[in-house]
# Entry
Amino acid sequence: MTVANTSPYLQLLVPPEEMVRYIQNLMKLPHAEIASDTALALAHKQWGEGTPLAHAAMLRWGALNLAFSDRRLDTWTVAREHDRIQVPAALVAAAGIAPLLIADELVVFDIAKLLDATLEFQPPAGQA
# Structure
């Protein structure tokens, strides 16, 4: 999917619980098997082939992968094995609803807004 034909899906939100289920299913796969065709097949299985939600989820999965290299997400991702990242459900849920934008011809998250959205899904830390 190129940036030119992604615009209808930039504003489409993926329900957080569905985004969590989708990415959890992807992350259960061996690292070598998480390719774009596998991600597409899982999206089609979950939402139906060619559906807007399947396209939106794929777009958000790609943007989340790009976000993993942003140092501001270091506190929200945990290295588990060599080249394998464990991602808290709060961050994945936020990836379903956080705003997307186009930067350098790529669809990306506004990291600050992604982190703000993540806090909505984070359980309270304690009582004041």
